UniProtKB/TrEMBL annotation:
Residue ranges constituting the Mandelate racemase/muconate lactonizing enzyme C-terminal domain according to the UniProt record: 163-260
Residues where substrate binds: N19, N53, K100, Y156, K182, E239, E265, H322
Name the UniProt record assigns to this protein: L-alanine-DL-glutamate epimerase-like enolase superfamily enzyme
Binding site for Mg(2+): D213, E239, E265
Amino acid sequence: MRITKITHSEAPIASRISNAVIDFSRMTVSIVAVHSDLVVDGEPLVGYGFHSNGRYAQSGLLATRILPRVEEAPPERLLDPETGVVDPVRVQRVAMENEKPGGHGDRAVAVGTLDMAMWDLAAKAAGLPLHRLLHERFGRTAEPASSVWVYAAGGYYHPEKPLQGLRDEIRGYLDLGYRDVKIKIGGAPLEEDLQRIETVLELLPEGSRLAVDANGRFGVEEALRYGRALTDYHLLWYEEPCDPLDYRTHAVLADEYEGTLATGENLFSVPDVRNLRRHGGLRPHRDVLQMDPSLSYGVPEYAGMLDELEAGGWSAERFCPHGGNQINLALAAAFGLGGCESYPQVFEPFGGFADSTPVQDGRVRLPEAPGIGVELKPALHNLLRERL
Ligand SMILES: O=C([O-])CC(=O)C(=O)O
Ligand SMILES: [Mg+2]
């Protein structure tokens, strides 16, 4: 097998929603296709990648640093010597050559996007759905999971969607088969946020839980003030109360807030996660970690994060990646994670899972088509084919 060409572009995922720190009016996403000379069913195999919402497209980094390294590398540096098929772990090493440690920001997104396309290609070449390939390589359980717990993330602030709109949105998620939901906080005064929370709680049936997400907005005092106000709601979790790299504030909050805290979607490397473990005071039996491979150098770095945290007493069941996309569903099944996020309405067509695997009782089944499964989501597949 040879990589014949790597193409990349950008796609808009703009919308009028906001969280506590950004609006999505100019949000974009990078998309990558890795073309190969391996012909299956009369067509050369192509692997597709994109990254999760919240970080902008990384065209410059891909074009000037990340892709040229891979394009210029001799094939044997990119291929598994036993199978002759592209090895995403080797590719990631090549993509990161001559990069200094630290500063894990947009570069991690560019590499994570390419990594997704490499896994899609490798799984297609092996004729396996990605969750089975990842399980063969990294699995910690006897079998990959056949379905994964997902929750509906939404409840953004929207200029034309006050409480009634929020109610309609959440009811829509329950009708789609979700049990648990997440809404934003921190973008309105506390009293208003509590009204939003109570409105949603009134709708949730027995057994359904609500999580809230402050997107890193608060300093220590405000994080504690919200924590005190949230305690009696018995939420599923209180997410990103403070800046992702402010480990001390996490520790102070974890000391006082008895409910579950969640963080990690903006930690992009093993060293950042090690610092969270050492200094963040989070509780391995209670809290939730949301690192997301497409934003953080891809699956190899994610496996390293799991190793780092397992050595520190965390179990894979406490991991629930941010991102609401198909690669994270595969990852959750392969690594035995607690679950993964889902965006039933926002960030289409990148959010969501295969059209053939609807949510049932809060879970999604794993599709068995080779690769990540973008072909099972025609709106996404068509967009990728047209732009790449
Ligand atoms: O609003 C965002 O940037 C996305 C987010 O935090 C989440 O999905 O948890
Ligand atoms: Mg979040």
